[in-house]
Amino acid sequence: MDRLWPDPARDLDLDEAMTGFAPSAAAPDRPVVAINIVTSVDGRAQLDGTAEGLGSRADRRLMRLYRAAFDAVGSGAGTLRATGIWLRVGDDLAERRRAEGRPANPTGVVVAGRGTIDTDAAWFEGDEPRILVVGRSNPIVAAPAGTELLHAPDDRPSPGWVLERLGERGIGSMLLEGGPHLNAAFLAEGLIDEVYWTVGAHLLGTDALPMITPIPGGSPYAQEPRRGRLVSVLRHGDELFLRYRFARGE
Questions:
Q1: Theoretical Cys-Cys bridge with 38: which of 120, 127, 194, 198, CB 3.0 to 4.6 Å?
Q2: CA–CA distances in Å: residue 43 to residues 97, 202, 238
Q3: 98-136: b or e for each residue (b if 16 or more CB lie within 10 Å)?
């Protein structure tokens, strides 16, 4: 692993390069939110319907290191349906979190609308706390053991409402791992504070989804884009790992 910026250094171990990593500080009003994404060079976030195959083994390790720094890891229902998702950090990082006085794994969060959810998916297994957020008219009336079920007041749970509920439960930070529609919903409400972007050395030329889909009804940032600040750049082979930070309220 090479750190290209800041403080350039060569041939680092990935865990060494990530020493001291932490998300932005939480504010009193809501948890801090980051999105973790992997795309091709031409900006596509899916290969045959999922992100599998776009990132390397180093990217998968980096994903766990990101997760380990957060209180919660979230995704949308579409990602759950497509992959079954497994949002834990692995044994070594779970032990590190325990040593720091934190739960072994972050709280799992899935945000759904009106559609049904397969409650036999791997996401519902394990002993970490889980929160399933569904829309007002979603037919689910009970969640599997170990999962808290929250019904939003609208058919499409508002990201702001979701963050309020998480904050009430002591969650100060959440890492979103897709999909692109959920990322768009958080962007629409100005609720993305950081972006962790893996650029894989691939060109696809397909109509696969991008990292963030177009915001329904038009983007509030179409004329005045949200501008971020580049925080760090790592390189593993031909793969780039970028971190951006966005000021709240901009």
A1: 198
A2: 33, 10, 16
A3: eeeeeebbbbbbbbbbeeebeeebebbeeebbbbbbbbe
Residue with tokens 């966005």: 246
The mean per-residue pLDDT over the stretch 97-111 comes to 96
Q: Where are the beta strands (DSSP E) in the chain?
A: 2-5, 32-39, 72-76, 107-111, 130-134, 147-151, 173-176, 194-199, 228-236, 239-246
- The pLDDT tens digits of the residues spanning 160-203 come to 999 999 999 999 999 999 889 999 999 999 999 999 999 999 99
Give the C-alpha separation, 83 to 105, whole Å. 19
Per-residue pLDDT tens over the stretch 65-89: 999 999 999 999 888 887 767 778 9
Query: Is 90 exceeded by the pLDDT of residue 116?
Result: no
Residue 52 neighbours by CB under 8 Å, 6+ apart: 83
β-pair partners for 235: 2, 240
3-state DSSP assignment of residue 118: coil
The Cα 82–Cα 85 span in angstroms is 8
Please compute Rg for the chain using Cα positions: 18
